[in-house]
Amino acid sequence: MKKGGLLALSLAIATVALIVIGCVWPVQAALPFIIQKPLLTSSSTPEAAVQVLGQEIQAHNWAKAYEAFANKAQFTEPEFELDLTGYTTNLRTYSTLDHFKAWPLHASADEADIRLELDWATVVGTSVMTRDLHVVRTGDHWNVNWPLTKQPIVPPQVIPVNYLRWDVIYRGAGDDWGAQDVNAPSVRIIDMHPVQRADGVVVMGELLNDDVVPAYVSMSAILQAKDKSPIAKEEAFDKISHVLLPKQITPFLIQFPDVRLSQVDSIDMKPFSILVPASADPVIAIDNEKFNPSPNASLTGQLINQSGQVVNVAHVLGTLYDKSGQLVWVVDQYVDSALLPQTPVAFNIQIPDDIAKKVSTERTVVATFSFGGLL
Amino acid sequence: MKAILTLLAASLLLAKLQAAWAQEETLRLPKSIEAGSAFLIEHSGGGEGTLYIVGPSQVLKRDVKAEGAVYFPARSLYDAGHYNVIFTQASGTKSGSFDVAPISAPDKLSFFANPSRLPIGVKHGITGAVYVFDAYGNLITAPTPVSFELSSPSGGIQKDRATTSIGRAWTEMDSTSQQGSGKFVAQVGELKSERIIRQVPGDPCTLKMNAQQAGQQVQLQTEPVRDCSGNAIPDGTIVTFTETYAGGQSTVDVPLKRDVAEVKLPLHSGAKFTVASGVVLGNQIGWQK
What we know:
The complex is a heterodimer.
Chain A: H1 2-24, H2 46-58, H3 62-67, H4 77-85, E1 96-107, E2 111-122, E3 125-138, E4 141-145, E5 165-166, E6 187-197, E7 200-209, E8 215-224, E9 230-235, E10 243-244, E11 249-257, E12 266-275, E13 278-279, E14 284-292, E15 298-305, E16 313-321, E17 327-335, E18 345-350, H5 353-356, E19 361-369
Antiparallel strand pairs in A: 1-2, 2-3, 3-4, 5-13, 6-7, 7-11, 8-9, 8-10, 8-12, 14-15, 15-18, 16-17, 16-19
Chain B: H1 2-26, E1 27-28, E2 32-34, E3 39-43, E4 49-54, E5 59-64, E6 68-72, E7 81-89, E8 92-101, E9 108-114, E10 117-119, E11 126-133, E12 145-151, E13 157-163, E14 168-173, E15 180-188, E16 191-200, E17 209-214, E18 217-222, E19 238-245, E20 248-255, E21 262-266, E22 271-277, E23 280-287
Parallel strand pairs in B: 2-8, 10-16
Antiparallel strand pairs in B: 1-3, 3-6, 4-5, 4-7, 7-8, 9-11, 11-14, 12-13, 12-15, 15-16, 17-18, 18-21, 19-20, 19-22, 22-23
């Protein structure tokens, strides 16, 4: 009994000590989850004012951040919050601010321009948001003018949508032996190309839905040595558009870290497809698509949702070809704002400079996801 | 002395023979019964005991009080197979065996038709395999005639007949040149099993689009997209329109709707429009206005 009491006391003391340590010296990943006092409270310089703002955003302390704005009369606090988290549910709605950086662009005695980069941690990786802030001096402290991005307004209208939808009746769990199921869609690899990169082998290619029904697809590959023994097995994960409508083509890219191409004798490609209910809507147009060569090579353009349904998450996949039409690289980016009907949303995907030198043409596809909708 | 020994040996042999005869008389089994039918197991020359019947997926146990017949009502044994019978008594154990055969009347068909969907004009592209079962789900191994019939969307019918071998029969059929859903039927007597085989068009044979100015945009519209047999390519099939102009391009993946795909793209002077569906390329239009 005495020993038990001592053990309980020890555990209680250790727990309290660990809680105190965790709050005083939190790990970076835990920062957004604790109610923390900003490390900087003074706005005595333009940089300090922006640092304080960044800390308030990181702590989701919207009210305090809003109160410090010089131009708060121009918008409300909820508008400021929605400007950062998204007016419509999107990738950033469920993200947290991982870290931020600020650097001055211009400064004078009474005003300054500072660029604030916010790196949001989303479920598909980091989403970077950059805002150029105008900071003004008010007495002995500085206040930020927040450049609010107004919510795009879609005029009231009726957008008739009568595209196809595919529903599937699968065999039931209670069906007897011999009850037939519907066949999986026929898919075909129409291009495949392994390359050696500094960090390993990359296998890329294009996959075609050769059927008349929609397919959920994925792609895996096994690198084999001369004796056919497997060296490594990897999947495309999200470097592929998983839902393909009939005759639609997606690029794919599979990374094999720490493998040398010289070790590889053959590659066993394994496309996988299953029949899924899907809709031919929404149709996304890719406008002003442009390959910008080195330096800072990129693939830019605008996505325009031609349908009436809001697209909450859009994933842009760019396929890059050389002059002979050979596939040279696959790039991708998640667009961190929702696609409202008829409203352009820009994308900008960075391309490695050594790859960019070879690029002659490009082809872009968009995979979309709408909450509450079909695939 | 020799005569006594001979008499003793003869008595022992007779006793042995009597015991063997008595055992055969004790347990009388049917040689074979039909699944689900009633049957009797008779025993004689003994008192109380326990009777076990052990089969592939069924076990029966009966306490036997006195000499006579043990009656098993209909549906006592319904799984076809070889059954062992064991009768245990205080004096010893007797055993035997008998078969339970499937009912000869078919009750259920398992029909595998493959594929559920295939392009038009494929010789021997459709296969059908049928397994014939009785009312208790036993595979009927006796030869049974089966007829197959595939009705095509155009109204044509392909027929074939086969006889089951070890419970199964199969056939091969061709897909026709016309798209649509066909009924594939396997029939044994009055018993039918039906599957739907969808025959789908091939790749687009020609893909041709027209361009027309619509304000600050160009409206692109394909002609009705058909395969080389004249079948309309299914709605929902993706057609990719690409506009290439100085310094950029625009791309839209558009699903076919009522056999055509159409889209509006921004108008750029000197633009070049191309159209494709899957790996099939269509025509190209240059825009100089």
